[in-house]
Design goal:
Blueprint (H helix, E strand, L loop, with lengths): L2 H6 L1 H21 L21 H12 L1 H10 L8 H7 L11 H12 L7 E4 L5 E2 L3 E8 L5 E7 L3 H22 L8 H15 L2 H14 L6 E2 L12 E5 L4 E2 L7 H22 L1 E3 L7 E3 L5 E3 L5 E3 L2 H15 L3 H11 L8 H15 L9 H14 L6 H20 L5 H17 L1 H34 L13 H33 L4 E2 L2 E2 H23 L5
Parallel strand pairs: 5-10
Antiparallel strand pairs: 1-3, 2-3, 3-4, 4-6, 7-9, 8-11, 9-10, 12-13
Helix pairs in contact: 2-3, 3-4, 3-5, 4-8, 7-8, 10-15, 10-16, 11-12, 12-13, 13-14, 14-15, 18-19
Length: 551
Amino acid sequence: MSAFNLLSHAGRTKDIITVLARHGFADLLNQIELPGTIWERMIPRPAETLRTEERLRRAAEELGPAFVKLGQILSMRPDLLPHAYVLELRQLQNNVQARPFAEMRPVLLEGLGTDPERIFSAFDEEPAASASLAQVYFARLRSGSQPVAVKIQRPDVQRTVQIDLDLAAWLAAQVHKHVAALRPFDLPAALDEARRGMLYELDFRHEARNQEYFNTLNPHPEQVFAPKVYPEHSSERVLVMERIEGHPVGRSPLPLAQRREIATHGAQSLVRQVLLSGFFHADPHAGNVLVTPDGRLCLLDWGLAGHLTRRLRYALADLWLAAVEQDAERIVQIAADLAPPEARPDLRAMEKEITLTLREELNFSINQQQLGRAMLKLLFIFGQNGIKLSRDYSLMAKAVLSIEEVGRTLDPEFDLRSRMQPIMLELRRERLNPRTMLRRTREVLHEAVLGLQELPLELRRLARRLEYDNLTINFQHRGLERIDESLRTASNRIALGVIIGSLIIGSSLIVTTRIPPYFLGYPALGIVGFLLSAMLGFWIAWDIIRRGGHK
């Protein structure tokens, strides 16, 4: 963002900087290029000392909807952020003060495309839930009299979000440029990805399609399901879906035996979504899960879903098995196979870090079973070693962590490992199925035959270019940028040194020969030359000290 655009939203910029400073990030703000010294006068001191990740969460909650959603989306990047930040950002609260229905009605009218009274026979104008981006109301359809929940986007939220995202992008770019310690995290790239995810969630049609797709794939709707969507009444800013009666998982009145069975169904459903369907709910935390009176689990809020290809599903299954078996060497091999060609990880160092992580989070001898936390840490280790896996792996890690927490809320003795076994066996049968193996063999042979067919043509092209002497090889030198800058700086200083020397010699000649005019009895031009030489000399000395060139 340019300085002009930044200053055009000076009021909001001041709010953001003040909140960040109040939560203890003043030192960070002082390292970036804030336009004008006015910002320094409005930076207060933090009132209390908290962990950095907790201060970041509180700042995001105070800054409003866009920053809350950004934090929630960034919490799905365990390959980028340390797991302590991921766990803290997951706690971001999305409940805000409700807007009056009079302000929400124009959005509802626009989204429905007609008068609400023509679609709903009853509509409760008191919101059942209020979040940062939308509010939910209960109503009843006129045709069929089905009870429904109507999700309405807050008015002007898109414009507000765009402004905050632009300001956040500018801050991330400044931090990346000026704070070397945070440069490895590549905050601008992470923010750009979070921006796309947030704009995706602002279109409720994606959420509707995800719910419908899950219900189509789901083999056990009697155990786990998503609310039915009414697409004929839904749009980009309004979502009409089935109203679900139920209790949050932490307040279910069902007996322990039934809750234990529900936890098993929920865990197996998620593992089946991830490993068999390759399509899964990205954030099934307790706030997005309801327990119905008949003992089923309802998954809400499908704004963000993960997608895994067959190759990624198989690699993930191998990764899970290797983690459970404490096989750090196998995990390193799987990560290396999935790594991009340009990655150059230190495999020995990775294996040591992974071994320590497995002992901390999956030590079954002391009943330490945290597969979700282990996945978060493993993905962070991969990311720090240049192995950037698919974003959907990050969504998977957070989904596993969430379903483990939901499972333990329903059943204190919940063990995801034992719940996974039936699905892992089903996946194994799929991978070893003769039809699957025959199809994969045909694909490999097909690619090999195509490669052999194209090889003679490629060799003839190479020989022809050699024959006509038009074969060129491009070399790209890397890492010379600092040398070029150093040479340019040295040349400028030498040139200034020559100028200073010439000024001193010329001024000395003028003073010696007593050339008029005079100032205080001395030749004025000589005095000016000496003063100019001194100023330039002091400036060069200060520049060398400032840049650390004196060390």
